[in-house]
Amino acid sequence: MTGLVATAAVRVLADRLMPHLWAADTVVTPLSRGPGGVGITVDEGIVTSTGAHAPLPHCPPEDAVHGCTATYAKADAVGFFHSYHPAAHYWPLQLTTTAVLLALVAILTVIAFRLLGRSTGGAARDRRTTGAGRGRQDRRTGAAQGRRTGVAG
Q: 2, 46, 105, 106: which could join 77 in a potential S-S bond, CB 3.0 to 4.6 Å?
């Protein structure tokens, strides 16, 4: 169950981060034309008279009938902005996201093998230094000393 939750979390995280891994295009349109641009939306909102970008204000139902003009006038809006990824960005975004996920998998694999080696490697080290392993080590050490002194071990 933990693996399923972790996989779902990675998928949601990748979907949230993907639009921000590549530079987006931004289109600014006048209020009379409405928001423009088609693709994967990164951010959208209104442009104020100072040129600042602000989130879309909530338009109450009574103003929605009139195209939210009163709400936009109160917010000092002069246009819309839409930051998005056009269709041409689809594959570069997919490949960049895949590269990030593969790097994450490689890091997690290295960590898993180090933890596995740490938890099982202690027993293997103990076997090498006790019993039959010690005799083999002594012979190697003796042979190395014999080479230095000229005496065979």
A: 46
**Residue 60 exposed, middle or buried by CB count within 10 Å (0-12, 13-18, 19+):** exposed
Q: Largest Cα–Cα distance in the chain? A: 104
CB distance 80 to 36 below 8 Å: yes
Q: How far apart are CA 53 and CA 55, in angstroms?
A: 7
| pLDDT reported for residue 132 | 53
Give the up-direction half-sphere exposure of residue 57: CA atoms within 13 A in the CB hemisphere.
20
Angstrom CA distances, 149 to 67, 85, 137, 144, 153, stand at 98, 74, 18, 9, 10
Using alpha carbons, list the distances in angstroms from residue 49 to 8, 78, 113: 42, 6, 58
pTM of the model: 0.59
**Tens-place pLDDT, residues 33-56:** 878 878 888 999 999 999 999 998
Place of tokens 């902005």: 81
- Residue 114 Cα to chain centre, angstroms: 23
Nearest Cα to 83, choosing from 32, 30, 46?
A: 46
